[in-house]
């Protein structure tokens, strides 16, 4: 029943998209589309969170290719991801009821927004390769249309172009992966694929293709280059969906292939997710530390979080391959918990960035500042989002990172030497990226919301609308709730873990007081609720004590600033000056950061000028040579453009003969 | 009855760290002065200073937001909660299990998060300098702490500080990785508390300061709370080093009142020894350039990584 309801809602989502074109002249079309989309997402969310026991729901619809149909299925994993997708979708819709009113050309967004959500739902419910790929492509293309919705900026067109290239490349890799999986049997439904025995080279090939395919959609380094371009280009509620939810659908794709369709894992499967995940975590956060475009900063931090999730999945694969069910369940739970958390706080942060953009028209954080006074509610929510993503207790981001660390602490029991050497390195990378991430968000919040306004736009900002605030407050409340009662989340994930890694963590909600103890209480335990209560109580006690015994008045004065009178907000620390120590310490290695200082000679009266250029080495060393090679080959093959008709026919014939020989072999 | 006793022990622990933290600062200052042939302020001078600050009005910059006023309380309470989770005179205290070593690091990270934000709130350049530098130090010191936490928890088989202390007390063997962890933690403690050679808590020389730059605009009770929090943080690190590496005399989980009395005596001796060593170290070294601090903390991070690798590798042999 939930499956049919979900499918019906997905159909309705596409219907809403189509209908929006029909009713585009209605004044309230924006509200209507987002309202309906939000309602449908909420319906799917409610349908899948109903406990189903161990039931797997399956159906075949007579759609798509003749005699094949489309198969759909919901198991514990799909249900979890459906919940994440639709929670994010519902929040983005509620937010967009307010935010979408700013849209200059709404028809470039409205038809594609519900279609995008429908595509993501389709991927998660698909039960055969055909349906999976169709839904995947549906998701990619509708999000591409959303990325290019503000097509009057040249950079957005460039972003959409690169996004389309990378998305096509990803789908192509997944297509090949399914081709190899099905092999000569041509099997395309997941049940048959599961049953086919795979040899080592075949699973290795599929795994590589999946990492390329799903990894490019998730933003795994070095396939991440589209992400910091596309996320800022899209409208903010779409950025939130792409960053908070679509990358999660890509992770679902990876889990579906690596943990399910490929059968029992070998230990070396874990090496790639571990290594690429750790690299993504560190590189993503380093770039987030130096960005001055707020949405770009958030996009790079998504790369970091995707990296953390892949590390946890890699650990889960390693433990599963070695038959260690309990640690595997712990790592798998950590990954899914982080998926959920990231969807919550990254959506919140993108919503906040959208509110700031709407209020000031400014994405460049160097021109913002002081917004905590003009937009106090947005500032409050954004601060919460920053704390959550910076993994500060008692919010939810900390719990999932803590679980990942606990999983790493169990990895000395892995017998393979390569993993023994790799996991401590991965551990230090994660610790480093967590700390750098906290710094990046101190910078983001501090420069945007604190201090004095650096431009007129920032000075005259107004608080954002009620609908946007509702969506943000709802998500941040969930962040706190998931942080102080993590045992519920862990128990919710445990059926999926049982299904995919064959192990369960001890039931956490039975420990009491919302404590979590992943292995045993003597080993490690954490209680978010009590930490929260203690922090609150001690702050309150301190405040009350002072109020009672030392009631001193408070007066306002100009800042002291060591006696230095500075009338201009330009003397404040900016985002780039804040990042300078990290840029200096790591800039030469991590990113090709170049500081240019144009200092006038003594006596000259022109202004000095300072600028920083940040380059991406992956573009310099991978993509630039690749583009060059493609252009070179294209130039060489250009001759083929100018052949006579006989030569064309000969060419086609030769190709046919070649292919026949290939098949005959 | 046991419940009440446990509650009493926990409350005593929280009160003890609060009372002793400024004393440790005072003792360190006193020893430093004596080593420099000065007389030095009285032992309780930090307490007098705190009370003096509490009796003053708060002068707040025009641009200060609510975050600026809330930050001291948040910094103080996260630090205090973290400090009361570290076993000082007894292990297995009532609320010791609510957070482990990794959570403790994150709690200190939360305190730093708010401190750095407070530094940026008024919108002066000095506050920004402090926050920016503190953030850089933190982004190296925090992973180093986590790696050290990895080492000790892999050896002790638990990230719970009580369990770690109990294990170290029962099975004290000299290991290379433990030594690495000790050196690393000392480096982190020096950097995190803004001591010489990383930062100078007594300076008001604008371009060299970190911690002081962030709290430059604070006054009255706000400043008092922040000073209290930073004293607590120093005490926390000293207790942490004490309970992990020198867990002598700590009362067992079901210890009697006498055990706890011994525990307190041992603890006080430990922190005075630590204060003396810290003062000795500080008078014999000079402050380093800001960009050398990343090398100094990088050493701690490398020691942590090496130690963790050693534990990983030797586990299987």
Automatic annotation (TrEMBL), chain A:
Domain NADH:quinone oxidoreductase/Mrp antiporter transmembrane: 126-411
Subcellular location(s) of the protein: Cell membrane; Membrane
Keywords: Cell membrane, Membrane, Oxidoreductase, Transmembrane, Transmembrane helix
Membrane topology, from the record: Multi-pass membrane protein
Top-rank lineage group of the source organism: Bacteria
Residues spanning the membrane: 29-50, 79-101, 160-184, 204-226, 267-290, 297-319, 339-359, 380-405, 425-450, 471-490, 526-546, 645-664
Major location category of this protein: membrane
Protein name as it appears in the record: Hydrogenase 4 subunit B
Organism ancestry: Bacteria, Pseudomonadati, Pseudomonadota, Alphaproteobacteria, Hyphomicrobiales
UniProtKB/TrEMBL annotation, chain B:
Cell location: Membrane
Keyword RNA-binding: no
UniProt-listed InterPro entries: ComplexI_Subunit1, NADH_UbQ_OxRdtase_su1/FPO
Keyword Membrane in record: yes
Transmembrane segments: 12-29, 101-119, 140-160, 172-191, 231-250, 262-281, 293-313
Xref: Pfam families: NADHdh
Membrane topology: Multi-pass membrane protein
Keywords: Membrane, Transmembrane, Transmembrane helix
Domain of life: Bacteria
PANTHER family registered for this protein in UniProt: FORMATE HYDROGENLYASE SUBUNIT 4, FORMATE HYDROGENLYASE SUBUNIT 4-RELATED
Protein name, as recorded: Formate hydrogenlyase
Originating organism: Methylocystis iwaonis
Gene that this sequence comes from: hycC
């Amino acid at each position: 029943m939930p499956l049919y309801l979900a499918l019906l809602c997905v159909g309705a989502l596409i219907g809403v998209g189509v209908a929006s074109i029909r009713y585009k002249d209605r004044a309230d079309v924006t509200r209507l589309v987002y309202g309906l989309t939000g309602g449908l997402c909420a319906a799917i969310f409610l349908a899948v969170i109903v406990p189903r026991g161990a039931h797997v729901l399956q159906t075949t619809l007579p759609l798509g290719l003749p005699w094949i149909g489309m198969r759909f299925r919901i198991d514990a994993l799909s249900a979890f991801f459906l919940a994440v997708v639709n929670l994010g979708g519902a929040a983005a819709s509620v937010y967009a009821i307010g935010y979408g009113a700013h849209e200059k050309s709404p028809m470039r967004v409205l038809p594609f927004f519900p279609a995008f959500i429908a595509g993501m739902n389709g991927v998660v419910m698909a039960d055969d390769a055909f349906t999976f790929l169709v839904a995947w492509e549906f998701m990619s293309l509708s999000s591409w249309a959303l990325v290019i919705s503000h097509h009057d900026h040249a950079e957005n067109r460039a972003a959409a172009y690169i996004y389309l290239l990378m998305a096509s490349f990803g789908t192509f890799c997944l297509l090949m992966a399914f081709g190899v999986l099905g092999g000569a049997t041509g099997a395309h439904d997941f049940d048959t694929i599961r049953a086919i025995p795979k040899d080592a080279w075949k699973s290795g090939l599929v795994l590589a293709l999946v990492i390329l395919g799903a990894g490019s959609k998730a933003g795994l380094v070095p396939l991440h280059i589209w992400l910091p371009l596309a996320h800022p280009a899209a409208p903010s509620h779409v950025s939130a969906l792409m960053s908070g939810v679509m990358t999660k659908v890509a992770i679902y794709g990876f889990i579906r292939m690596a943990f399910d369709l490929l059968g029992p894992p070998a230990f070396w499967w874990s090496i790639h997710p571990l290594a690429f995940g750790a690299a993504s975590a560190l590189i993503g956060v380093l770039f987030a530390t130096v960005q001055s475009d707020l949405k770009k900063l958030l996009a790079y931090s998504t790369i970091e979080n995707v990296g953390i999730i892949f590390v946890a999945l890699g650990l889960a694969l390693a433990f599963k391959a070695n038959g260690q069910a309990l640690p595997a369940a712990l790592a798998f739970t950590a990954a899914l918990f982080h998926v959920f958390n990231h969807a919550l706080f990254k959506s919140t942060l993108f919503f906040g960035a959208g509110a700031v953009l709407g209020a000031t028209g400014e994405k460049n954080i160097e021109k913002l500042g002081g917004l905590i006074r003009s937009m106090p509610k947005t500032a409050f929510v954004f601060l919460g989002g920053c704390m959550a993503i910076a993994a500060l207790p008692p919010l939810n981001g900390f719990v999932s990172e803590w679980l990942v660390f606990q999983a790493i602490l169990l990895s000395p029991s892995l017998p393979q030497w390569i993993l023994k050497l790799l996991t401590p390195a991965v551990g230090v990378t994660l610790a480093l990226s967590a700390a750098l991430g906290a710094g990046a968000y101190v910078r983001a919040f501090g420069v945007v919301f604190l201090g004095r306004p650096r431009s007129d736009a920032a000075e005259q900002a107004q608080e954002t609308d009620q609908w946007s605030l509702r969506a943000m407050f709802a998500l941040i409340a969930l962040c706190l709730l998931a942080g102080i009662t993590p045992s519920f989340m862990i128990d919710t994930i445990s059926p999926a873990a049982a299904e995919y890694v064959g192990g369960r963590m001890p039931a956490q909600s039975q420990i009491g007081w919302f404590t979590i103890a992943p292995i045993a209480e003597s080993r490690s335990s954490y209680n978010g609720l009590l930490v929260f209560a203690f922090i609150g109580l001690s702050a309150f006690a301190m405040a009350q004590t002072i109020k009672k015994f030392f009631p001193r008045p408070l007066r306002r004065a100009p800042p002291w600033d060591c006696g230095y009178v500075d009338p201009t907000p330009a003397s404040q620390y900016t985002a780039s000056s804040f990042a300078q120590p990290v840029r200096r310490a790591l800039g030469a290695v991590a990113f090709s950061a170049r500081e240019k200082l144009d200092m006038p000679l003594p006596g000259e009266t022109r202004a000095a000028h300072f600028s920083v250029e940040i380059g991406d080495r992956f573009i310099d060393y991978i993509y630039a040579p690749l583009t060059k090679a493609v252009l070179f080959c294209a130039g060489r093959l250009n001759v083929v453009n100018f052949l006579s008709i006989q030569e064309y026919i000969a060419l086609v014939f030769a190709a046919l003969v070649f292919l026949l020989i290939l098949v005959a072999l | 009855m046991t419940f009440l006793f446990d509650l009493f022990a926990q409350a005593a622990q929280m009160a003890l760290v609060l009372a002793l933290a400024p004393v440790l600062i005072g003792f360190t200052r006193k020893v430093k002065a004596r080593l420099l042939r000065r007389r030095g302020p009285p032992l309780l001078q930090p307490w007098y200073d705190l009370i003096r600050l509490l009796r003053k009005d708060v002068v707040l910059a025009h641009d200060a937001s609510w975050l600026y006023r809330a930050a001291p309380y948040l910094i103080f309470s996260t630090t205090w909660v973290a400090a009361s989770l570290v076993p000082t005179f007894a292990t297995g205290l009532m609320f010791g299990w609510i957070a482990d070593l990794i959570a403790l690091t994150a709690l200190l990270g939360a305190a730093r998060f708010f401190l750095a934000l407070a530094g940026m709130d008024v919108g002066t350049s000095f506050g920004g300098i402090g926050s920016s530098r503190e953030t850089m130090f933190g982004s190296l010191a925090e992973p180093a702490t986590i790696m050290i936490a990895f080492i000790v928890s892999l050896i002790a088989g638990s990230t719970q500080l009580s369990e770690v202390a109990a294990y170290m007390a029962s099975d004290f063997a000299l290991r290379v990785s433990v030594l690495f962890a000790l050196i690393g933690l000392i480096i982190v403690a020096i950097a995190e508390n803004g001591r010489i050679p990383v930062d100078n808590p007594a300076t008001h020389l604008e371009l060299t300061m970190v911690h002081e730059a962030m709290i430059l605009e604070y006054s009255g009770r706000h400043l008092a709370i922040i000073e209290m929090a930073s004293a607590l943080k120093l005490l926390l690190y000293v207790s942490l080093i004490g309970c992990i590496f020198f867990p002598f005399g700590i009362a067992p989980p079901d210890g009697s009142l006498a055990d706890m009395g011994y525990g307190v005596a041992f603890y006080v001796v430990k922190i005075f020894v630590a204060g003396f060593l810290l003062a000795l170290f500080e008078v014999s070294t000079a402050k380093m350039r800001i960009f050398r601090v990343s090398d100094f903390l990088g050493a701690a991070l490398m020691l942590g990584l090496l130690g963790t690798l050693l534990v990983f590798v030797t586990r299987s042999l």
